[in-house]
Here is the input.
Amino acid sequence: MLACEIIYKYKGEMNNAILTNIIAAMEKKMKEKGEKIALIKKINNLLIECCQNVFHHSLKNQNDSTPSCLIVTASGEDYYITIRNLVKAEEVPKLKSYIDKVNGMDREELRQFYKGVLTNGLISEKGGGGLGILNIAKKAKNNKILYNFEPKSEQEYYFNMSIAV
Amino acid sequence: MNPLIIEATDETPRVKLDPESGIFEFTGNSYPENSVKFYTPIINWLKEFTQTYNKKNISIEFNFDYFNTSSAKFILEILRIIQDYYDKGNECVVRWYYLEDDTDMYEQGEDYQSTTTVPFQIIERIDASAN
Here is the structure.
């Protein structure tokens, strides 16, 4: 079994200012490891989509914050981004069926689907239209999103998502 | 019309829309928390430009490092405004820059290219800061 190295981990509130810090820290680490700029960009782009997905769609706690947990690991030549946040129980079936649909597509189908949503979808303040999840799958290795839902209470689930880069 | 110049931040690009030269530049990152707030003044400026000016050649320079999906929608909106201007007989060109090996950015350029009939060049740039 290949050794797994933790490159970055973060637990706490997620917002754009924190995301900017995460990206700067990741970029520094990746450059120290001698990784190519194109790979650094891909990982940062995925981090943007994953983290913004969290703070745009995650369930907020009493303090109006969006607690989240992010971990980036390296194993062999691959990097893995794993992120966890809270979602409402009622959103689980919809999210699950959307990710299953996206995971069922190959690279070219994803690209066409993305283009369709991009050109026909509506602009909302959040971005919306499922484009974030689509973009994550489009950029991920093998175009697959690993995920599960763990119940926290009757109304809340942890949404765990992991992608290889 | 006055130029519209917005300096870059970590999460938003430098924007320079110059009505005199007809060069409209977007350079850097684009992942604002609220894309509507950031892009609405840009969209409004471009709409006013296309209604004010006639027979003015324009070039749009997209030189992004990363952009999020809600920015992606506004890039398309900008291209639609340019398309209308082009359809009225004005000369326009779009230049989409990508860093060597950045296949995602290259493909996104191709995807946008396929949505428009405006001349659209996809250009590789070499990163001077590499290594």
